[in-house]
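Quick start: load a record and inspect it. Here is H(+)/Cl(-) exchange transporter ClcA:
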Amino acid sequence: MHNGFYYGVAVLVGAVVGVIGAAFHLGVEWLSAAWPAYLSGDLGLTGAPLYLAAALIGASMAVASLFLVRRFAPEAGGSGVPEIEGAMEGLREVRWHRVLPVKFVGGLLALSSGMVLGREGPTIHMGASVAKAAADLTKMTSQDMRGLLAAGGAAGLAAAFNAPLAAVLFVIEETRRQFPYSARTYIGVVLASFFAAVVTQMFTGDIPYMRLAVDTLPLALLPAFAGLGLILGVVGTFFNRTLIWSLDHVRALGQRSSFYLFPLGVGLIVGVLMFALPEATQGGELLAVQLAQEHRTVLALALIVLLRFVMTMASYATGVAGGIFAPILALATTIGLCYGAALEFVLPLPDRMEVVLAIAAMGGLFAATIGAPLVGMVLVMELTGAYTALMPVMLTTITANMVALWLGNRPIYEILLERTLAMEAKARQATRTADPARPPARLDDGAAAGGGIDNTLRG
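Running the structure step on this input writes:
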């Protein structure tokens, strides 16, 4: 295939992903605001009737999202990033014709219900699906297809966060084992990310999604950020291990009773929390900015940290379509603010240092959980526009990553992919044992990789 043709396909993929990503972003923003406004405004509900109606709507949206995943595209559950990495290794298959609609509609319902999930996972998965469709239509070779998958995924991240540079680095750092590096595939990733960001900005503007203004801090305060990185390395390790524990236990619950029981319960809870305690719901990008501009007490921030941690685990374990980038960033922001509020009891801090701590915490927790410190640094810069905080962000991020590695933590997507493949192998063995004459079963288990619900075995 001629380089020019490949680059043209990459540009087209980026532009299409930009349109889909912007539509998904705007759709989630509209629906997540529309149904609460309808209940409290148009219907005028208050008190118990309001909470009951909100619980029913939240539960309905959660169950509907899971139904779409389980019925039409099991691999669309969770974030989808492990599925893409598996496809780039030749271990999974991107069935774009079913992933695209299920990921869009299912993700729209799940995120708008109030679940603590991010839109970046679905957008990355949809981006790779667009790339797979283009590769199929143009009959690309296996290597070119793998490179285009990476380009589509990067375009999805660029569209989700308006962060094209972080998207390119995500491919280089996160998929370094799978990416078929060459000048052509690398340029394709850059082109797709660039044009996805251009199209996204046409719809949503070019202002950073989590814009936060900060001043340059004295270098003498950098040890405080090393301490923050130490804490986040421990938190990130605990986060990953708790997430896997949650997936396993919710899956076991689904096998014993109903696969819809746990999502039903989570939907009921988040529906109520949308009115009772909105800080414990949704992806949290706007919440992170809001909290950074307020001055809440240590106890109030600690409560938000606890609630968002629990709700992130519960939401992701349902197996609906949704990512964890945004919840990680919002959780990190709250931890950084809590750390800053605690420091003020010990020593006086410069004005707005707590905001710098919040920004640095985003990179730190991202590096500790995802295992991509360079992406974490650049993503935080692009999201907040706080380039004067670069030094504190770098120190916090690399310290958190070092601590997580020292504790034996591994990148969460790597763990999730291995979990999916192990479950698939176990399912095939069970099929052979039960009926030796039957073809081996395949576990199309996106929820195994990204959620906790076991899905249908297909022979």
